[in-house]
Amino acid sequence: MNENAREHIEKILNHMTPLPGVYKMLGKDGELLYVGKAKNLKNRVSSYFVKTIEHPKTQALVARICDIETLIVRSETEALLLEQNLIKLHRPPYNIMLRDDKSYVYIFISADRPYPRIASGRGKGRHQAGKFFGPYPSAYNARDTLLVLQKLFNVRQCENSYFSQRKRPCLQYQIKRCSAPCVGLISPEDYKVDVENSIRFLRGDTKELNQELIGKMEEAAEALAFEKAVFYRDRLALLRDIQTQQAIYTVKGEADILAIAYMAGVTCVQIMHVRNGKMLGGKAYFPDMVDDDLSQMMSDFIANFYFQVADEIPAELIVNVELTDRAQLEQALSQHFEQKVQIKHKVRETRAEWLELAQMNVQHAIKGKLSNHFELNERFHQLEQVLQRPVDRIECFDISHTMGEATIASCVVFDSGGARKRDYRQFAIEDITGGDDYAAMRQALTRRYKKSMLPDLLLIDGGKGQLHMAMEVMQDLGLDAFMVGVSKGEGRKPGLETLHFTDGTKIQLPEDHKALHLIQQVRDEAHRFAITRHRAKRDKSRGRSVLEVIPGLGPKRRRDLLTHFGGIQGVLKASEKDLTLVPGLGAVMARTIYKILHE
Predict the structure, then answer these.
(1) Three-class SS of residue 587?
(2) Rounded Cα distance, 462 and 35, in Å
């Protein structure tokens, strides 16, 4: 790896997300070298570039890497299945190639009568007649499911040759994991009920089963039989995992999913491709568009992409904004590609989850773009021209509270290399009148600059009032700081901000000015940093579960949530789809809970 490639990789690693996803290693000509999955993308990808790597194949791979692309997903399972699709599609030279469908494991219920068996195997329907369920991400997951089925329904899992030769029950019967149909200890009718319950379980039709396990767990706990209660709790957790449907592999169909986002002067469109019901990956595009109207920008992008770049188009385009010229665009695309094309905005179920994935990735891509070294340098350069002075270090303050409760002040730091998170500071504001933002800002500035050096530019989130108060603080401390107040425009609309200077002058930069984009980026980061700590402090000071602050979530449903997921940590890890599986919890409440816990 040459020096330029090394520097480029280091910048990518510095801004890589800790979310789960898939990563692609690329060579100097953009060729795909390797596809991998990760629970934590930042940790996994960074591990390739440590000095202790000894495996020759890994060393050879690292030596050829010139670029890295990532695609985030919501869970490790989605990462695994997406990785498999990409490997089969592109066959990268450094991946271990699997033939046919050997990477997929199925559970099947045989067609033997009157006592079918349940087992797992690779390849759907190739060597065995019966009903198949899956695919499962790994043999481990399939074996775990079989173990649960053994304990819940006692259906046999032994080979037919073993089954036909038994004269007395085996050990599985003794430990209550088989009903011993081999020696007639269960009637064909009762065994059929167990098989049907197993099929319901594998199909995810398990609401009644859920309630039954919860009842047994609570009954065991009340009887102080804690080992048995833990057993049922673990079964509930595994049942929940099996119930979880992977959004990117549950239906048939072909679609392109497009999500657009605009932030601090950068427009990004993420395209994700679904073919035969499977997500095949995607790509982020950064078109040279700056417009208030996301709908118009999306229409322009679709026209440019499909008429000038794409060789094919699926029957469905799913977008995250409503297009005002949708009908005309559909007609033009249908004529050009000689097939019917539909553009959809309001989608449900699986397609809504595809769209959610695209929106997650477009946000990740646009944040990565904003952290780009060259873009950041240009923004600093244009800011220096506006201020007519050199600027290398910017500090910005923001205040966050809920009607005066749990007030937090944040200080974020940026330089020409991007966000300096190790220099960030948060201040818990005490001994002021609740809701007095001026007093809160005064306290934060005083505490910060009693001991710290002044930056080249001090940004104050607020108008003339906040700026004058900051000037008083600097005067009391005997410091001479270059400060700018940033007030929001009409309707708090991005792009209409006004910059206030200490000499009383003010300016409003054009919406597409890179200096304004830098100021927006720093201010938004200060707001994010403040509100994150504020929410944590507020919930802690209230002395209640984080679930208790969710409107409309009463004691019974909080209890059902905690019981279903085995505790608050399970609730926090659950996806929105997982939450809808809790009995009595509708889609609207699940979305509310997920948004409050994660956004």
Answers:
(1) helix
(2) 46
Classify residue 96 by its DSSP letter. Answer: P
SS3 235: helix
Report the chain's C-alpha Rg in angstroms.
29
pTM above 0.85, yes or no: no
Q: For residue range 2-45, what is the model confidence (pLDDT) as tens digits?
A: 777 888 888 888 888 888 899 999 998 889 999 988 889 999 99
- Distance between CA atoms of 126 and 130, rounded to whole angstroms? 11
Domain count, the chain: 5
Q: Which two tokens stand for residue 97?
A: 């190639």
Residues counted in the chain = 599
For 593, other C-beta atoms within 10 Å of its C-beta total 24
On whether both 335 and 284 belong to a single domain, the answer is: yes
In a domain? residue 225: no
Pairing status of strand 483-487 against strand 266-275: unpaired
Alpha carbon distance 419, 229 (integer Å): 48
Q: Cis (ω within 30 of 0) for the bond into 135? A: yes
pLDDT tens profile 480-532: 889 999 888 765 666 678 899 998 898 988 888 889 989 988 988 888 888 87
Dihedral through CA 84, CA 85, CA 89, CA 95, nearest 10? -10
* 3 state DSSP class of 270: strand
Q: What is the rounded CA–CA span in Å between residue 595 and residue 599? A: 5
Neighbours of 142 (CB within 10 A): 22
Q: How confident is the model at residue 160 (pLDDT cuts 50, 70, 90)?
A: confident
Query: Residue type for 219, please?
Result: E
Contacts with 240 (C-beta within 8 Å, 6 or more apart), sequence order:
564, 565, 570, 578, 581
Name the nearest CA neighbour of 510 among 520, 501, 502. 520
Which tokens in the block code for residue 468?
């004058």
Residues 412-434 have pLDDT tens digits of 999 877 888 888 988 888 888 87
**Residues 255 and 350 occupy one common structural domain:** yes
What's the pLDDT at 66? 92
Q: Evaluate whether 278 touches 248 at the Cβ level (below 8 Å).
A: yes
Q: Which of 398, 401, 397 is nearest to 541 (CA)?
A: 401
Q: Which residues contact 415 (CB under 8 A, 6 or more apart)?
A: 392, 393, 394
Say how far apart CA 428 and CA 431 lie, in whole Å. Answer: 10
User: 539 and 549 in contact (C-beta within 8 Å)?
Assistant: yes
Instruction: Say yes or no: 461 and 500 in one domain.
Output: yes
Instruction: Give CA–CA dist 158/315, Å, rounded.
Output: 46
Whether residue 20 is preceded by a cis peptide bond, meaning omega within 30 degrees of 0, is no
Residue 56 belongs to a domain with what CATH number? 3.40.1440.10
DSSP line for 426-453: EEE--SS-TT-HHHHHHHHHHHHHTTS-
Shared-domain flag, residues 403 and 352: no
Assess whether 39 and 75 both reside in one domain: yes
Helices (H), 91-222: 139-153, 160-165, 171-174, 188-203, 207-222
Q: Which domain, by its residues, includes 352?
A: 249-370
Q: Same domain, yes or no, for 78 and 112?
A: no
DSSP 541-577: HTTS-GGGGSTT--HHHHHHHHHHHTSHHHHHH--HH
Q: What is the full DSSP assignment across 219-258?
A: HHHHTT-HHHHHHHHHHHHHHHHHH---GGGSS---EEEE
Residues 158 and 195 in one domain: yes
Helix (H) or strand (E) holding 428: strand 425-428
pLDDT at 247 (0 to 100): 40
Q: Are strands 130-136 and 105-110 parallel, antiparallel or unpaired?
A: antiparallel
